[in-house]
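Recall that a protein's primary structure is simply its ordered list of amino acids. Everything else, from secondary elements to tertiary packing, is in principle encoded there. The following example makes that idea concrete.
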Amino acid sequence: MRAVLAQATAVGLVLALERSMLALKRQQNLDLQRRILDNLNSAILMFDHGLRLSYLNPAAERLLAGSARQLLGHKAGELFLNAGPIEQMLTAALDSDDSVTRRELELELMHSNRATVDVTVTPVLEGTAGSEVLVELIELDRFLRITRDESLYSQQVVTRELVRGLAHEVKNPLGGLRGAAQLLAKQLDNADLQEYTDVIISEADRLQSLVNRMLGPSTRHALRNTNIHEVLERVRSLVSAEVGGRIMLRRDYDPSIPEMQVDREQLIQALLNVVRNAAQAIPAEGEIVLRTRVLRKCFVGSKRHPLVARIEIIDDGPGIPKEIQDRIFYPMVTGRAEGTGLGLSIAQNLLQQHDGLIECTSAPGHTVFTLLIPIQREQ
């Protein structure tokens, strides 16, 4: 009897061990599948039978400008402003148990963003009926954006070298001019004539300051853990004091963004330049939106970083003239008669020193400056 019980116990242990091994293997397979999905550049979404979002990968978070915590459980009609075509594809896939594909579909996303995508909807079959559908969105605009970002990087490098060479050629004669004016002022007894030398000295100083501003900061980074929203609130308070009640500065922050290693003062200066530029573009009353989101597995230029902060400065001004949109980050390029054309160039330079980038899209009534700053840099 004891032998039978021992044999039964051994069999039970073997079966339990086999079940544990099978469960472990299934979990490992699930973890592998999740890692594969998380590293895809295509946006992957899964909807249940009620067309509610049950899963999305980091590429989908980036496309929809939101985190999984914010988006899960939402219906397709809440994720896309023109959800009709997507909903029809989801319903057709569920009803037919067959894949549905559509090319070059233009999606209207939240926050007035748009994207052109190839869409494939595939039912996930359980038995004889589909209970969930898998949606793959291949963003066609992304390849154009990467090319544009690389062009912006190259443009800024060339501009910086050009400005450095020009500054060297200008600063030396400026110093001699200022010194000669000072010596001349000491030799003059006539106060009226000294007024002219004072003009020479003050204009030489103004040009020296202009050249220094074009060169950007001369100090090294003082990197430290920084809360991006504290920086934005500092910028918001400064600009609010300058514009009074003429412009409303509205917040739309993502509290999940962790602290990042940046030079706080330089980041304040970059954001201040962009927000001031937006405020100066609004001729009368208007609104500026300060929006933050966190992106995973995001490209900045040609490099993909594990975690990136996206800061959007959105204004409802008249927009940037089309003829200068491609040159807006060049020094001395401005759409305003009283502008110097240095603010955006300096901001772009400061962001690139943090491995980041500023992008711009503009149309009448809706201009967006997007600042991308790596939180976790590519290893």
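DSSP finds ten helices and twelve strands in the chain. The mean pLDDT is 80.
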